[in-house]
Design brief:
It is built from eleven helices and no strands. With about 200 residues, it is mostly helical. The termini are far apart. The longest helix has 24 residues, at about 50-75. Helices cover about 75% and strands about 0% of the residues. It has one domain (about 1-185). Helix 7 (about 120-135) packs across helix 9, helix 8 packs antiparallel against helix 10 and helix 9 (about 150-160) packs antiparallel against helix 10 (about 165-175).
Length: about 200
């Protein structure tokens, strides 16, 4: 019975994570987000293509779906390790949305949403590191790579070892989804936050 519960939670979290808030908000503005800016569905591209308020709404939606997924898992009494896996399902849903042909975003905001309830103190430090890097460099992608690169260490410092595996998986997903950004950094062509084409 527990196995069925877990499977249903993973599926529900994946579907929840799949909701493409950036696409929905951009469409309401008459813009196809997949054809402008970096063509990514996340808040950074919404900021670049539509401005601050649409980006803020996208960010909020992407964060909350990660938070909601873990909250639902906790409501149904899953163990902390499985809470992390429920959160990972939401992140995977964002990255490989069923509504976008299994394409999607990079999972930064949704990962922060997951951490916000799964490991709140770690989430706070991850956000602070991201914010500091972005403030000094104006590169959102670099902020994501640095802050989530340090995530496993922060989990060990501010939470528990039982959450380390989930933290490592989140870090791997972030780096996998930012491989194009890493290549652009190497070439010197990465765009700064808010910079238009």
């Amino acid at each position: 019975m527990d196995m069925i519960k877990y499977i249903l939670l993973f599926i529900a979290s994946f579907i929840l994570g799949s909701i493409p808030f950036g696409i929905i908000i951009a469409k309401a503005k008459g813009v196809d987000l997949k054809k402008v800016g970096s063509r990514n569905i996340g808040a950074t591209n919404v900021l670049r293509s539509l401005g601050k308020w649409p980006a803020a709404l996208t960010l909020l939606g992407d964060v909350l779906k990660g938070t909601a997924a873990v909250a639902i898992g906790r409501y149904f009494g899953v163990e902390p390790v499985y809470e992390g896996f429920v959160g990972l399902s939401a992140i995977l849903g964002h990255n490989f949305s069923i509504f976008l042909g299994f394409r999607g975003g990079k999972g930064v905001a949704t990962s922060l949403g997951v951490l916000g309830i799964y490991s709140p103190q770690t989430a706070l430090f991850t956000f602070i590191i991201w914010l500091m890097v972005v403030m000094f460099t104006k590169y959102s992608s670099l902020g994501a790579l640095v802050s989530f690169g340090l995530l496993p260490i922060n989990v060990l410092l501010f939470d528990s070892k039982e959450k380390l595996f989930t933290a490592i998986l989140i870090t791997i997903l972030i780096f996998m989804r930012h491989k194009d950004n890493i290549q652009r950094f190497i070439k010197g062509t990465e765009r700064r936050m808010g910079q238009r084409e």
